[in-house]
Write a structure and sequence with these properties.
4-stranded mixed beta sheet; 3-stranded parallel beta sheet; 9 strands; 30% helix; 207 residues; alpha/beta
Length: 207
């Protein structure tokens, strides 16, 4: 899907990793991925991996919908393979607690840092004090209006990463006319003005 193409692939390339396989239930997405990347296997479900060539598999990256992240973690655990998982690692707090025994084998990351557009921006912008971030409120049904505890986590992480420090949120002001918010904060001595807006389309390639 979009996360694997625009986030996970740059992430893997950044650390010098080679992609050896893909699990993607959508046939068209699977075919478009394999047309670009030379992989040993491309299957539709985790169970299909039992027949795949997993020789030399060093790690698994899970960047699918949250509903399947826990399944990927359990699959990796059974095979003693470490996993990098996009947040959240599971569908509920309870499911996260149930995965506690696997904590030494998984890493939960925010892969938007690895999107090409963000990496270019970070390299060219020395000290931004005003950042504008857009997300697609339609990506996850039922999530509209909950961006401050879901989508905005990416925005906070990106702001801190852009400024090479921890983002301290001072105040949040919600927009009245458009779904979104203005976040006032600071990273060290640098003031941060972060505007988070909803948008109508997937923004990853051009973010």
């Amino acid at each position: 899907g979009n996360y694997s193409r625009w986030m996970a692939v740059p992430c893997l390339h950044h650390v010098g990793a080679r992609i050896v396989g893909l699990v993607e239930p959508d046939v068209s997405k699977r075919e478009s991925f394999t047309a670009i990347h030379d992989v040993r296997f491309a299957v539709s479900d985790l169970v299909d991996l039992d027949d795949a060539d997993l020789d030399g598999l060093d790690a698994v990256v899970a960047c699918a919908t949250p509903a399947v992240h826990a399944d990927v973690i359990r699959w990796a655990k059974l095979r003693s393979v470490p996993a990098l998982v996009e947040k959240p690692p599971a569908r509920s707090a309870q499911e996260c607690y149930d995965l506690w025994d696997e904590r030494d084998q998984i890493a939960v990351g925010l892969m938007k840092r690895f999107a090409t557009g963000y990496r270019i921006a970070k390299a060219e912008v020395v000290a931004p004090v005003a950042l504008k971030y857009r997300f697609n409120a339609g990506d996850i049904p039922g999530k509209e209006g909950k961006f401050l505890d879901d989508f905005a986590i990416h925005a906070f992480d990106l702001a801190a990463w852009m400024l090479d420090g921890n983002l301290e949120v001072v105040a949040v002001h919600k927009h009245q006319k458009v779904e979104g918010a203005v976040v006032f904060g600071r990273v060290g001595q640098t003031a941060v003005y972060l505007e988070i807006l909803a948008c109508s389309g997937w923004a990853a390639p051009g973010e």
